[in-house]
UniProtKB/TrEMBL annotation:
CDD domains: HP_PGM_like. The active site is at residues 8, 77. This is Probable phosphoglycerate mutase. GO terms for molecular function: fructose-2,6-bisphosphate 2-phosphatase activity. It comes from the Bacteria. Substrate binds at residues 7-14, 54, 88. Pfam families: His_Phos_1. GO terms for cellular component: cytosol. It comes from Sulfobacillus thermosulfidooxidans (strain DSM 9293 / VKM B-1269 / AT-1). GO terms for biological process: negative regulation of glycolytic process; regulation of pentose-phosphate shunt.
Amino acid sequence: MECYLIRHAETVLNRKKVLQGWADAPLSDNGIIQAMKLSGVLPPWPIFSSDLKRALHTAELFAAPGQRIQPDARLREIHVGVWQGLSKDRLGQTSLWQQYQRSPSTFRFPDGESLKDLQNRIVGAFYEYQERLDRFIIVSHRLAIKSLLCHLQGWSLDQIHSIDLPNAAVLHIYHD
């Protein structure tokens, strides 16, 4: 099995350091350039993408002509509930944000999901693709990909903040 995990390119809300969750923010001009730089670099394997605009647009910009992109809601970012659209600077001053930073594995976003909910979604999708295909590409989101990596590495979700995953990051996963 071989796959590429790709975080969507930069959005206008990434630039503003705003929690996006399920918000459908467009790519920034820089994000469009980031995604276009992936064109011709990745193999023409089946692409599974979050159904959110920022991930789909990233995939569309690097996909080869005729390469199929399959949207899948299970690849969405974590649902951050009432925190969607709030700035990280503002949230950083709250005790709930501090709780999330200290113990992410037990935290549930207010009116949203927990990291375990997210991990269950993306891991289920990943193994479904792996059963059908030897090679594929996933375009998803920061916490979604990081939660999948925690699962694949056997790490606790409490280690999720130690993983750096910038916009348009490409990870290559290979397993014999």
